[in-house]
Write a structure and sequence with these properties.
The protein is α/β, with parallel strands linked by helices and 255 residues long. The chain has helices at 3-12, 16-20, 24-38, 55-64, 77-80, 96-101, 127-135, 159-168, 172-181, 199-207, 219-232; strands at 46-49, 70-74, 89-93, 112-118, 138-148, 184-198, 238-252. It has one domain (3-252): Rossmann fold. A seven-stranded mixed sheet has the order 3-2-1-4-5-7-6. Helix 7 links the parallel strand 4 and strand 5 (138-148). Helix 3 packs across helix 4 and helix 7 (127-135) packs across helix 9. The two termini are 35 Å apart.
Length: 255
Amino acid sequence: MSEQTAQHYARLASTYDELWTYDPDHIRQFSRAMIDALRLIPSDAIADIGCGTGLYTRALCEDLRPARPVLCVDPTPAMLDQLPASPGLRPLLASAEDLASGHVGLPTAGPLDAVIMKESIHHVPDRRGVVAGLTSMLSRHGRILVVMLPTTISHPLFRAAHDRFEELQPEPDEIADLLAAAGLRASVSYRTFHVTVDRARYVHMLESRYMSVLDEFSESELAAGIEQFRRAYRDDPVIRFDDHFAFVTGWVRPG
């Protein structure tokens, strides 16, 4: 994770949940989609890498009710500070690289059955090394889910933000190739979530730089982009768009 990205999440930590809970149903639907994609069961040993405040991890726990705590891994102390005290959540201050390299060890005995990386893989410089390291921690029926946006997204950002996002975001097929190179049976599927958010609230989200790509712009550039957004959606008090996600999965091969 770059210094700019670390500062982004440290700055957003106290308001992160407020910014992203514009539609609670979206969070619930997403957690259930991840449970379905990994075929999670309560007895699984699960790690959420790059969990942030645990916003989605909490919803997953409420639905799955795992028999042991989900390991909540994040490199930003301010984000983990927002994780509620719960017997179902076990925080671990570490980056994906720390964990995958063994620099920070697993605090629990035994391998992992399931690893989730939701919208964090693009922040990982050494993706090949991280995927290989995490794969080595899996049980004989282990699996990894990398949830990521495709390079072209429907978020109502301004044009320059869309262009910059496309430059920075890896392709889902690239991640699938890394999973396959690590020896996993890899596949890519896509899921769509319908999003509804008040225009005024979305302007606040833009002003708060709710997506890390928005930190790529100066204050004046961001202000100009928000003005572009206001003009484009001046007749729409409510913004609706389809949020498309790639669900990249890797499964330990039998035998």
